[in-house]
Fold this protein.
Amino acid sequence: MSCDNTTKDKMMFINSYKVDCTGVGKMQCLQVKYTDSDNWVYFYDTIEGFDFKPGYLYQIEVSIDAIDTSTLPSDKSNLKFTLKKVISKQKDITYRLNDIWVVTHINNEELDKASFQLPQLEISLKNKQLLGNDGCNNIKGTINRITDSEIELGPMMGTKKMCPQMDIPNKFNRVISEIRSYKLDGLELIFFDKKNKEIMRSMKFD
């Protein structure tokens, strides 16, 4: 059965990175929303004429055409999205967090670089996860919320082995749950508690 072709224009916001998703099969989806206050949702279609670059937040205007479903395979959308114009394209500050960071200071005290192992954090915004180790045990936790200056972490899980030197791991684990905000300064990532006191400083891992 066919339908009359109709066209409407719509504003869309595009997040700065794609996520793993499952449509007909495994794929990478854009994250979109239609007002600034909406939550991000997966977008399984393509936008004709739109050249997505990771690391940028977009606001775009698209035209949406209804397509005659009688000419489409059963697994295809009946909507066609076409870029009309890019309204804005801005670098996403949070995108730089996607990396591995070596902890160099805790509570403004520089950690001994001669230690067996310095704590490391691996941040994945795509998976909303924080992975790494505390200098002894592997750790894993969720990122519940993040803005361009604030971060809210879920409970951390980790292995429970004992290492010969537990001073640094113990300091790390005491402050990781107190993190409330952050600042990127060159190659450094600095974390602060709820009183805006620096509690952890890390360096981008080469």
Notes: Helices lie at 167-176.
